[in-house]
Amino acid sequence: MPVKFSIREYRGEDFDVVTILWRISREKSLPDFQNEKGHFFYEDRNYFQNHVLKENRIWVVDVDKHPVAFMAMNNDFVDQLYINPDYWRQGIGNALLELAKEQSPEHVWLYTLQVNVNARAFYEKNGFVAEKFESALHLKANLILNIIGVKCKPKYASHLFGN
After folding, report:
1. Separation of alpha carbons 161 and 50, rounded Å
2. Sign of the CA dihedral 97, 111, 30, 58?
3. What is the DSSP letter of 75?
4. Which of 19, 40, 69, 156 is packed most tightly, with the most Cβ within 10 A?
5. Structure letter (DSSP) for residue 30
6. How far apart are CA 142 and CA 137, in angstroms?
7. What are the structural domains of the chain?
8. pLDDT tens for each residue of 54-78
9. SS3 82
10. CA-to-CA distance for 2 and 24, rounded, in angstroms?
């Protein structure tokens, strides 16, 4: 049964828990890639603070007033969408995608690693289509990125706020 959650804007006090869940989610979904990538947690925190926060609008998903997921978006581009693995398959990802479609009703797009088959299946199930494949040699691994985009009419997500 899906868990009850609410979506709100990011706040400064979310930094620690959001960067931890960001790392945990990546480690759980792609452990080999995360190990090969070679970034220390302090580097992740610096990147989040100096890039993710500065370049995006961020929403946080709370369960019992505790952050369990977040989405970072810059105009029509979903830069980050991560969910604590304990809350996967609870409707949270769908709700965040609906919010993204509400924020940019004409077009939403994102990157995902081709090897991340679970993420790709999730996005395709939600109407995204692989449009372009690019080499990702700068990631220190011979991985492929998908640019996934969709033109869609959103189911408005305003009812998700609050509770």
Report:
1. 28
2. negative
3. T
4. 69
5. -
6. 6
7. 6-160 (3.40.630.30)
8. 999 999 999 999 999 999 999 999 9
9. strand
10. 21
